[in-house]
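Incident log, entry 3
Record: Nitrous oxide reductase accessory protein NosL (201 residues)
Problem: checksum mismatch between cached and fresh output.
Input:
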Amino acid sequence: MYRRRFIAGLAVTAVGSTGCLGGNSSEDVPDPIALSGEKFDDQGGMAIGDHGGPNGQVFYAENSPEGHENPAWFHTLVFGLFPYHFDRLDRGWEAEAVYVTDYSKVDLPSSSDGNPRLPAPTAADTFADATEVTYVAESEAVGGMGPALPPFSEESEAEDFAERYGGRTIGFEGITSTLIEELKRNAPGGMGMNGMNMSDG
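Fresh output:
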């Protein structure tokens, strides 16, 4: 069972810091849900699970996404979850839990061209606490929108992935708005409205 922690506090560039909110216990933190069943990204409106790459979901304490109850859900981290979450933090929203695809629990396809296309699992048990995984930034791996930010609950697997496909490993605290903007700028095919890569590259 993954350890659950609340996301609390704000930083100018960071997503947040870990810790309990209001003295609540870990039993109060919601578990991740399955993102199957024609769910559409709350940031860009694209179907989740169809485009490859890590998915994500965020439960907010006193707010909810437009059109449905918590969590907010995303088919990409670079163009979906993190831009949306940075914006909500700026608005004063408080997150109870943030979950991302855990590639330590997913079979990754082999790639002969050095440019692996990551799967996009949607089952609840394929998600892990976003604050406790290791991410690989700036690798050759791609998701449905281009650059991916694959997370791994096993740090050694993240390091092996980076060694094989390039990039560098970072923790949750290293994911800043500056990093996300850099990854978006490096997306193939250019970007459209709200930073979305309209080529779906």
